[in-house]
Amino acid sequence: MSHVIVVGSGIVGLAVAARLAARGDEVTVLEKEDGLALHQTGRNSGVIHSGLYYAPGSLKATMATAGARSMVAYARAKGVAVDVCGKLVVATTPAEVPQLEKLAGRAEANGVSARRLTPAEAREHEPHVRAVAALRVDSTGIVDYPGVCRALAADVEAAGGRILFGEEVLAARTVADAPGTPGRVEVRTSRADREADALVVCAGLHADRVARACGLDPEARIVPFRGEYFELTPEAGEQVRGLIYPVPDPRFPFLGVHLTRGIEGHVHAGPNAVLALAREGYTWTDVSPRDLADSLAWPGLWRLAARNLVPGAAEVGRSLSKHAFARSLSRLVPGISAGDLVPAPAGVRAQALRRDGGLVDDFLVQSEGRQVHVLNAPSPAATASLEIARHIVEQLDAAVPAARAA
Ligand SMILES: Cc1cc2nc3c(=O)[nH]c(=O)nc-3n(C[C@H](O)[C@H](O)[C@H](O)COP(=O)(O)OP(=O)(O)OC[C@H]3O[C@@H](n4cnc5c(N)ncnc54)[C@H](O)[C@@H]3O)c2cc1C
C-alpha cells in the first residue's frame, strides 16, 4: 500500500482519489477551498459529451467516448441525477453545412452515432429551432457534476481516505530513491509539512503554477477564459426541450453559445469565452493583478489574440451586451430576445496555451519523479474524468513502481 497525496477536489482529483482508495492505497486529498467542486467542476454546462468534436485518436476522443459511458453508469449506480437526452447540432445557414458534414465525419471516425436530419426532422426534436440541416447525437447527456463529486468523495472516505479542506499546497519536491530507502515526496502546504510516497496534482486553474512550485517546467501556461451564462425565463425556456448547439467555428477553440436544459430543469444559455482578469475571475470586476500580469506577460496570449481578433472582439461584445448575446441565441431559436435572459453564474476554463499561441488541444498529463501533474484538462474533462483517473493511475504506477509494490 502506498500513501498518495492528491491535490484538488474537482472531479478529476476526486476520481483519481476514489480509484486509488478503491484498490487499497492510503489517500489524502488536499483542497484549498472549504468545499468540493467550487471551481470548473461546479461551474460548467453539466453536459456529458459524446466525443463528437475531438481529433480521432486523441485522448479527448477516446476518453470522452469511453467516459460518456462510464459517467452515466457511475451516476446511475450512485443515484446521481443523470439523463441521456441526446443533442442537436444545427447549421443555421447553407454556409455552415460543410462544417456540419465534417463534424458528421468526425463522429463516424470516433465511433459516435450521429444522424443527419432535415430541417423538418430537426423540428420533431426541437419544434422552435432554426435549421437548414442538423445532426442528432443520441448519446449526449446531462448530469449533476457536483453530485458526482459528492459520490466520489463518499467513496474515498468509505475506503479510508481523507479529504482535507482549507489546505493549499504551496510546494513539493521528490526525494529520490536511495539504496535501502524508497524515495518520497515532501509537500509544503498552508497548514503543514507532509510526506507521501507519491503526489498527484489536479489543480485546474492553477495547474501550471503548482507544477512549477513542485519543480516541473511545463511548456504551456494556463490562461483563464471565462464562460458567461444566462438562464432563460420559464416562459422562454418552453421553446427548448433539450440541448441545441451551433456548428462550432473551426477557427475558434470553444463550442459557441448553446442552449442546454440542465438536469435541474432550467434552460441555460452560454457560455461565451472572454479572457478572465483573474484565474478565479467570475465577473469583469474580479481582477487579480498577479494573474492578469501573468497572462499578459505570456507571449502565447498575444499571438492567440492576433490570430482571433474578430471572434475575440465578438465574444467581448457578447459579454458586454445582453442584446448581442440574445442575437447569437436567436440564430438557433428565433424567438429568444434579451428580455428572456436572466444572468446566471459564470465559469472559468483552465486552458493551457503554448508560447507560440497554440492551444494545447488534448488532455496533458506529465509525470516526473514521484509526481504526476494534470497540466491541461479542459472540456470534456468532466465527462472523461473517470477515464482520466484510470490513465493517471497507470502513469503513477509506471512512475513509482517501488511505491506500488511496497
Ligand atoms: C464554462 C465551462 C463549461 C464547461 N462545460 C463542460 C461540460 O458541459 N462537460 C464537460 O465534460 N466539461 C465541461 N467543462 C470542463 C470541466 O468543467 C473541466 O474540464 C473539469 O471540471 C476539470 O476538473 P478539475 O478537477 O481538473 O478542475 P477543477 O474543477 O477546477 O478543480 C481543481 C481544484 O483544485 C483546487 N486547487 C487548485 N490549486 C490548489 C492548491 N495549490 N492546493 C489545493 N487545492 C488546489 C481548486 O480549488 C479546485 O477545487 C466546462 C468548463 C467550464 C469552465
Automatic annotation (TrEMBL):
Residues 3-394 form the FAD dependent oxidoreductase domain. Pfam families: DAO. Its cofactor is FAD. The keyword Transmembrane helix does not apply. It comes from the Bacteria. GO terms for cellular component: cytoplasm. InterPro entries: FAD-dep_OxRdtase (IPR006076), FAD/NAD-bd_sf (IPR036188). Gene3D superfamilies: D-Amino Acid Oxidase, subunit A, domain 2, FAD/NAD(P)-binding domain. Keywords: FAD, Flavoprotein, Oxidoreductase. The keyword S-adenosyl-L-methionine does not apply. GO terms for molecular function: (S)-2-hydroxyglutarate dehydrogenase activity. NCBIfam families: PRK11728.1. Belongs to the L2HGDH family. PANTHER family: L-2-HYDROXYGLUTARATE DEHYDROGENASE, MITOCHONDRIAL (PTHR43104). This is Hydroxyglutarate oxidase. It comes from Cellulomonas pakistanensis.
